[in-house]
Design a protein that fits this description.
Elements (H helix, E strand, L loop, with lengths): L1 E6 L2 H15 L4 E6 L10 H6 L7 E2 L7 H19 L3 E5 L3 H12 L3 E5 L11 H12 L2 E4 L2 H9 L6 E3 L3 H14 L19 E4 L3 H4 L2 H12 L5 E4 L2 H10 L8 E4 L4 H9 L3 E4 L2 H10 L3 E3 L15 E3 L9 H5 L17 H11 L1
Parallel strand pairs: 1-2, 1-4, 2-3, 4-5, 5-6, 6-7, 8-9, 8-11, 9-10, 11-12, 12-13
Bound molecules: uridine-diphosphate-N-acetylglucosamine.
The site of uridine-diphosphate-N-acetylglucosamine (UD1) has 19 residues, from α1, α5 and α10.
């Protein structure tokens, strides 16, 4: 059997790592297509080298662009790839423009599509990810769900017969890297200048268009971070840097120290060394939970509702209008046990098995 993985953005590379490893233990052929949605070394190459992922077999090189331009470029480029590779399955990941384009290109040419991380919903139609994931789920033949909640959403949309619960592959990779970091197998992360790794600090990321694209809102959010009583290591996504520059907003103010995005082991090390996380990233909310740090999420909702239980994660859509933002951001991690809502760390093997047996 031949399976093509279509990936393009940073979080998909993290999910690809355990899937590629699981395929390598089978006789099946696994072909990696990188769309090129993310192209900076910080967002792409370091994940291949750091997580031991084989180099992409095909690189589409689409780069950045508006939604239509980027999605359309992947869609157009995939025709040739599918015609020459003739896969048994096309596997798409998560909810980016590369995901929906990969899925659509395959169904149109009658190739079977599996969607990893199916069934997540924010019910917020302003988010590009929400369109991408809903459309991908309805196009796909096999829906590999990470959580019971995702299975419920798929059932509510009449997709139960195509859905299977495999768990979350992010657990596979996050726990493996955590153990390696704790065993001293990775160098200490390069935190932004001005952050003392041995004193309390928060890890922060912001990249959602709803937080970065409106100048007033971005300035207000950065202002709230700047006023925190502990240093904030802001690991800045290029989108954030680009928008801040465009709007004339200085990210390096008050408590905020700006640094580059970290490789995966660096991020895990940074979170393990931190007093907590403030983010709008889906992946980081879950990584904080898995690594036992309190998370404050700058969004009105989350797809990962399990993290909200017992206050491990707290939603603060508007930090600048939330009088107790400071107390929330610096609150200690809860002492309650977290359970394993995201599975046992063997999701990738189960996902590969589900594809092979479907
Ligand atoms: C994309 C995904 C988002 C995911 C995120 C993870 C979509 C619609 N969004 O958002 O779901 O959470 O990846 O990081 O697919 N840029 C660079 N270098 C790069 C890539 C991007 O400088 O390698 C800059 C460019 O200015 C670009 C901007 O970042 O225009 C946005 O990149 P894009 O891929 O459109 O979306 P992300 O914000 O990264």
């Amino acid at each position: 059997m031949k399976v093509i993985s279509v990936v393009g953005a940073r979080p998909q590379l993290v999910k690809l790592a355990p899937i590629a490893a699981a395929f390598s233990d089978t006789p099946h052929e696994h072909v990696i297509v990188h769309t090129g949605q993310h192209y900076d070394a910080d967002l792409s190459d370091v994940f291949f080298s750091g997580l031991g992922i084989p180099d992409p077999d095909v690189h589409l090189g689409v780069g950045s662009g508006g939604h239509g331009e980027q999605t359309g470029a992947v869609l157009a480029a995939m025709d040739k790839v599918l015609e020459s590779e003739k896969p048994d399955w096309v596997l798409v990941y998560g909810d980016t423009n590369s995901t929906v384009a990969g899925a659509l290109s395959a169904v149109k040419l009658h190739y079977r599509v599996a969607h990893l991380e199916a069934g997540l919903r924010s019910f917020n139609r302003r988010m590009p990810e929400e369109h991408n994931r809903v459309l991908t789920d309805h196009a796909a033949d096999l829906l590999l769900a990470p959580t019971e909640e995702a299975m419920r959403h798929l059932g509510n949309e009449g997709l139960a017969h195509r859905s299977t619960l495999v768990g979350d592959v992010m657990v596979d990779v996050c726990l493996r890297i955590r153990d390696a970091v704790l065993a001293g197998e990775h160098p200490r992360p390069s935190l932004p200048e001005g952050i003392d790794a041995d004193a309390p600090y928060l890890v922060s990321t912001l990249h959602r268009p709803d937080n970065t694209d409106d100048p007033e809102r971005l300035a207000a959010i950065i202002g709230s971070l700047a006023a925190l009583p502990v240093p904030v290591a802001l690991l800045a996504h290029p989108r954030l840097v680009a928008r801040a520059e465009q709007h004339g907003i200085d990210l390096n103010q008050g408590a905020v120290r700006v640094g580059r995005p970290l490789p995966y082991a660096g991020l895990v090390g940074a979170v393990l060394g931190s007093a907590g996380v403030v983010t709008d990233s889906g992946g980081l909310q879950k990584e904080a939970f898995l690594l036992g740090r309190a998370c404050t999420t700058v969004r009105p909702e989350t797809e990962w509702v399990e993290t909200l239980e017992d206050g491990w994660n707290h939603l603060v859509p508007d930090p600048h209008e939330t009088p107790d933002f400071t107390e929330l951001a610096v609150r200690p991690a809860p002492e309650t046990p977290r359970g394993t809502p995201y599975g046992d760390g063997n999701a990738a093997v189960r996902a590969v098995q589900a594809i092979v047996e479907a």
